[in-house]
Write a structure and sequence with these properties.
With 240 residues, the protein is mostly helical. 75% of the residues lie in helices and 0% in strands. The radius of gyration is 21 Å and the shape is flat. The chain starts with a helix and ends with a helix.
């Protein structure tokens, strides 16, 4: 029993390192000093009073990633409600099972009595992840009717899909909307790369320089969270 608990802690901690882009030396500590390394990581990088209630749930979801989905499938079979279907679709989406998530989102989308905005957002992200850019564009154009679309992640994905389908000039309008100071670091890095590919080097330099300056004023948790992005920004900036 003790052995399985240590393995569970190791799996959760490594998952947390990768998900939050923490420094990778933690993985070596967790693997080679299993019990102590995992406990040190939990205390210094994960645990606080607000986290305590969800650590057990997260551990279960890492060790048994399909358990929640199976439970939600049974729940939907028992009662085919809009909410039950949406919860199952969300769980599938979180597992990156985009194909099956899409199936349930599109069924839920047919319910005219419900707010479709959230469903459309997920469909845009899911279809883009599956590299179905035409479907991504189709759902994004439906979402464009909503004022919340402006400066949203869905608008950014729409721009990416337009670029993937050879509509680079149209894409720029939607991609650059995400360029907001002290936020959206990963997306702004992608935007800088888009500018480089479009031979707009000065525009790319400006974004990369801004991110570098902003990183100097980040809190410690944010520096850890965005470390990989910041490092890539700095390397890319040196090449221009």
């Amino acid at each position: 029993m003790y052995y399985y608990l240590i393995v569970a802690l190791q799996v959760f901690c490594i998952y947390h390192v990768i998900k939050n882009r923490n420094q990778y030396y933690w993985i070596f500590l967790i693997l080679f000093v299993p019990a102590i390394g995992s406990i040190i990581y939990l205390i210094t990088q994960v645990y606080n009073k607000r986290d305590a209630a969800i650590i057990k749930e997260n551990l279960t979801s890492v060790l048994i990633p399909t358990k929640r989905v199976k439970d939600l499938e049974k729940k939907l079979q028992f009662s085919e409600t809009f909410q039950n279907r949406l919860e199952l679709a969300d769980a599938l989406f979180e597992m990156k099972d985009f194909k099956n998530a899409i199936t349930h989102y599109e069924v839920a989308l047919k319910d005219e009595t419900q707010n479709k905005y959230f469903i459309l957002e997920k469909l845009i992200a899911a279809y883009y992840s599956l590299k179905d850019y035409n479907k991504t564009i189709a759902y994004a154009e439906e979402l464009k009717k909503h004022p919340e679309f402006s400066k949203s992640k869905s608008e950014f994905i729409y721009g990416l899909a337009l670029d993937k389908t050879g509509q680079s000039e149209a894409a720029e309008k939607y991609l650059k909307a995400i360029d907001q100071r002290y936020s959206n670091y990963s997306e702004r890095l992608v935007l800088a790369k888009f500018y480089i590919e479009s031979d707009k080097i000065e525009a790319a330099k400006e974004i990369l320089s801004e991110i570098t300056i902003e990183s100097q004023h980040m809190t410690k948790p944010n520096k850890s969270k965005y470390r990989a992005t910041i490092n890539e920004v700095e390397k890319l900036l040196k090449t221009l």
